[in-house]
Specification:
Elements: H1 15-44, H2 50-73, H3 82-110, H4 115-141
Protein name: GtrA/DPMS transmembrane domain-containing protein
Pfam families: GtrA_DPMS_TM
Family: Belongs to the GtrA family.
């Protein structure tokens, strides 16, 4: 039976628990980012060719996506490490750009340059880029030893030290 006089100790969440919390948050951010990306691409497409419109739309949304995932998915707050996280996020951006640019090139060579074909190609490429992005962010950008427990307020209240015993040990 738990002793109410002793502080409650919370073990660090196992990796599988963190994934089950992170994945739905990442998915919501990803859906919002994809909608913004496709909307911006569609708005830019009448004035830019497909590849430049893709570059601009992806760059704008990738910066916002990294910031949102940093804050909400991986629960990293504050300015410490933000520049490094965004630079590492650019690697994920380049991978996404390669996938989406390749999808557009293949669609134009084999199908057509119709707007619906471009959007379909971008959705497929974005799905692959999203899986890659989650893996990179989780394991490399925010998954290193220095990122666990990173400047995140304890949502369970302040830390409580265990009582000191008669022998002076905790």
């Amino acid at each position: 039976m738990p002793n109410p006089a002793e502080p409650v100790r919370h073990a660090a969440a196992p990796r599988s628990t963190r994934v089950t919390r992170q994945l739905p948050v990442f998915a919501v951010i990803g859906l919002l980012s994809t909608a913004a990306y496709l909307g911006l691409y569609t708005a830019l497409r009448p004035v830019l060719d497909a590849q430049p419109a893709n570059l601009v739309a992806l760059l704008v949304t990738a910066v916002a996506n990294t910031a949102a995932n940093r804050r909400f998915t991986f629960r990293v707050q504050g300015a410490e490490g933000a520049a490094r996280h965004h630079l590492q996020g650019l690697v994920a951006f380049v991978a996404g750009l390669a996938l989406s640019s390749g999808a557009l090139a293949v669609a134009h060579r084999t199908l057509s340059d119709a707007p619906r074909v471009e959007i379909a190609a971008l959705i497929v490429a974005n799905a692959a880029a999203t899986a890659l992005r989650f893996t990179l962010l989780r394991l490399w950008v925010f998954g290193g030893a220095g990122h666990r427990g990173h400047k995140v307020p304890n949502r369970r209240g302040p830390a409580v030290m265990p009582p000191v015993g008669a022998d002076g040990e905790r």
